[in-house]
Amino acid sequence: MRYLPLTNDDRAAMLAKIGARDVDALFRDVPKSAVVPLSAFELPDGQGEIEVERALSRLAARNVAAGAGPFFCGAGAYKHHVPAAVDHLIQRSEFLTSYTPYQPEIAQGTLQYLFEFQTQVALLTGMEVANASLYDGSTATAEAVLMAQRLTKRPKAVLSGGLHPHYAETVETVAGLSGTVVRAPVRPGRAEDIAALIDEETSCVVVQSPDVFGLIRDLKPVAEAAHAKGALLVAVVTEIVSLGLIEPPGHQGADIVAAEGQSIGNGLSFGGPYVGLFATREKFIRQMPGRLSGETVDAEGRRGYVLTLSTREQHIRREKATSNICTNSGLCALAFTIHLSLLGEDGFTRLARANHAKAAALADRLAKLNGVSLMTPFFFNEFALRLPKPAAGVVEAMAAKGILAGVPASRLLPHEPAARDLLIVAATETNTEEDCAAFAKMLGDVLP
């Protein structure tokens, strides 16, 4: 996008139009005690384009890329192999230029792949209906809480202590404006007694499985406890590949499923863009946020696809809208659909088995190291280790030697004392035997 600065004449015309003397007049209602002078920020002087490029290049050079060596980071974003065919297909011009299906008669391709994407998500999650995607897993979770508040007309949301902290913070930011958010205690490797927090004011209970520490949760007792109080169960999945082995949340009593689909078809990309998955029961479909692509027939009986139940403009109707999201992660959803189609049902299951096998073998190897304890008894491809020293320092020491050993739990939970010596480790199909052996040897070297 081109940089088009305003001229002084432009600013003067705008100020004259609204009746303001100068820019400072726009802030006259702000108390002087709340105004921070520009000098307090200690910003550097302006620089030329070459200097800025060099400064940014120096910052970028400090990153250790995921492909630079053994990589065991997870905690919500996972390194998986994406076939070259995915990138090739999504770069076809008809996909690159397709932004949003305003007119169905000229957007049949877009609407068809969105319909197929929705079908895949519904089957994966064990739900009856899915939307055309949201921005990412965290915003999908916040939208799920808002939806539960609308359906139950109750203000309170109860969040599991195992919910990814970034997801919890997003829920508090978005849904906290319309209700109250209660977070259960953090108990790494253990399921909390979340039923004790559910009451007649509770709209939903939000539980992640596998949770942020990798623990696989049995959602059925939580669903029963929530339903007994008239609340809904929102199931969260950050590692969608886990559903190749684990019973879908829809079969465990979940009413809404919010998930992150990055693991299928989408690379790490320094944190985005990603693709949020959202599915629910058919009886709740009128309160589902986002878009829904539906199948129909034209006047001649030929199959066709349309946006159904609501139009794009419905989502900007202020307080009457079911969502503030009027679009979707279209290209990322397409990459997801292509990759999953290439895998097929059997391939997806084999991928999940490979992930679990890699993680189980690595966990067994690391747990034998002196002072290391495995904190996650049941996991898919991610687990938490308790180390005999702060995990952040261990990760820094190993990164300096070319191994990205995982995510220190203290990075996600800086104010949680129990997280200080916890290391969250993820292993996927991309980790070789040599990677795992190097990880175990170096971890043993840096520990006392």
Poorly predicted segments: none
Task: Output the CATH homologous superfamily of the largest domain.
Answer: Type I PLP-dependent aspartate aminotransferase-like (Major domain)
Number of strands: 13
Based on CA atoms alone, the radius of gyration comes out at: 24 Å
| Structural class estimated from helices and strands | alpha/beta
Question: How would you describe this structure to a colleague?
Answer:
This protein is an alpha/beta fold. It folds into 2 domains: 255 residues, Type I PLP-dependent aspartate aminotransferase-like (Major domain) (Aspartate Aminotransferase, domain 2, 3-Layer(aba) Sandwich), CATH 3.40.640.10; 102 residues, Aspartate Aminotransferase, domain 1 (Alpha-Beta Complex). The protein is 34% helix and 13% strand. It has 12 helices and 13 strands. The strands form 3 sheets. A 7-stranded mixed beta sheet has the order 1-7-6-5-4-2-3, sandwiched between helices. Helix 7 links the parallel strand 2 and strand 3. Helix 3 packs antiparallel against helix 9, helix 5 runs parallel beside helix 9 and helix 6 packs across helix 7. The chain is globular, with a radius of gyration of 24 Å. The chain starts with 7 loop residues before the first helix and ends with a helix. The mean pLDDT is 92.
